[in-house]
């Protein structure tokens, strides 16, 4: 669920993003939420799988991020899959818009975490991987695991 990360509390991660994309740059953004969504996120009920960020009219939104309704929220709960506005500086948004307009680039949310009580999103400027890239990454990962295992046995 939640783990410590440099004094920040990670609430949700998108591990699949690193498998499906080459993450070239990361950015931190605030996120516009209502109270029941914040409570639900703090309980670990957020899911970043299949979510993406999109720039419209100089504003950036996160789409397909699922936040389960808060159980005690009754009438104050919102749609779990609604688009949520991200809070970034205008010049950062313009730079991202320019970068995304290049062929094959997209914006992918990587993690949700708390910074001084505020929910933040780490977004990555990503380029899609092909299947052969994914297989190569898996080979490297298993080779590294095997080397680490051999080193551990050798120094026992």
From TrEMBL:
GO terms for cellular component: cytosol. The gene is smpB. It comes from the Bacteria. SUPFAM superfamilies: Small protein B (SmpB). It comes from Clostridium collagenovorans DSM 3089. This is SsrA-binding protein. Pfam families: SmpB (PF01668). GO terms for molecular function: RNA binding. One of its GO terms (biological process) is trans-translation-dependent protein tagging. PANTHER family: SSRA-BINDING PROTEIN, TMRNA-BINDING COMPONENT OF TRANS-TRANSLATION TAGGING COMPLEX. The lineage of its organism: Bacteria, Bacillati, Bacillota, Clostridia, Eubacteriales.
């Amino acid at each position: 669920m939640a783990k410590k990360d440099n004094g920040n509390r990670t609430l949700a991660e998108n591990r699949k993003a690193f498998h499906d994309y080459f993450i070239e740059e990361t950015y931190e953004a605030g996120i516009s939420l209502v109270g029941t969504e914040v409570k639900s996120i703090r309980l670990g009920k957020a899911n970043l799988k299949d979510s993406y960020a999109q720039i419209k009219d100089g504003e950036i939104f996160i789409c397909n991020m699922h936040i389960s309704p808060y159980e005690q929220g009754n009438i104050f709960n919102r749609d779990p899959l609604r688009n949520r506005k991200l809070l970034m500086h205008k010049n950062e948004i313009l730079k991202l818009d320019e970068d995304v307009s290049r062929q094959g680039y997209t914006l992918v949310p990587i993690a949700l975490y708390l910074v001084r009580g505020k929910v933040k999103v780490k977004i990555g400027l990503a380029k899609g991987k092909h299947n052969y890239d994914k297989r190569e990454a898996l080979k490297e990962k298993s080779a590294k695991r095997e080397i680490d295992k051999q080193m551990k046995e050798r120094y026992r």
